[in-house]
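Treating backbone geometry as a discrete language has practical consequences that deserve illustration. Part of our work consisted of pairing the sequence of a single chain with a tokenised description of its backbone. What the numbers capture is local backbone geometry rather than side-chain detail. For completeness, the protein is quoted in full, as a sequence line and a line of structure tokens:
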Amino acid sequence: ELFAPDAVWTADGGGRVNAGRRAIVGPERIVRLVLGLESRFYGGRVTRHLAAVNGETGLLTWMGGRLHSSLSIATDGERILAVYNVLNPDKLALVTGPPPDSSTH
């Protein structure tokens, strides 16, 4: 099992961008959300890079040369306990470093 049975996905748009207002609980619901977001919004137009985010394994997603979101994952060493997806522009402004090249990952 990749996810703990009570794994939680939360999103932070800071009231400035669309993000889920409620936490998503449970592996099946999280996977459906991710697959839906991927097919509906991203569709290969993004660049992603692994990064340390708040001391956890994370993923930075870039769209059009701009940082779109920062995703971090909390684990118990074996399974995913929580996923934190930050889309809040104020918080993303704190991420340093140049945007990646335009290749899609």
The chain has a mean pLDDT of 84. The chain has one domain: 3-92. The domain at 3-92 is CATH 3.10.450.50 (Nuclear Transport Factor 2; Chain: A,).
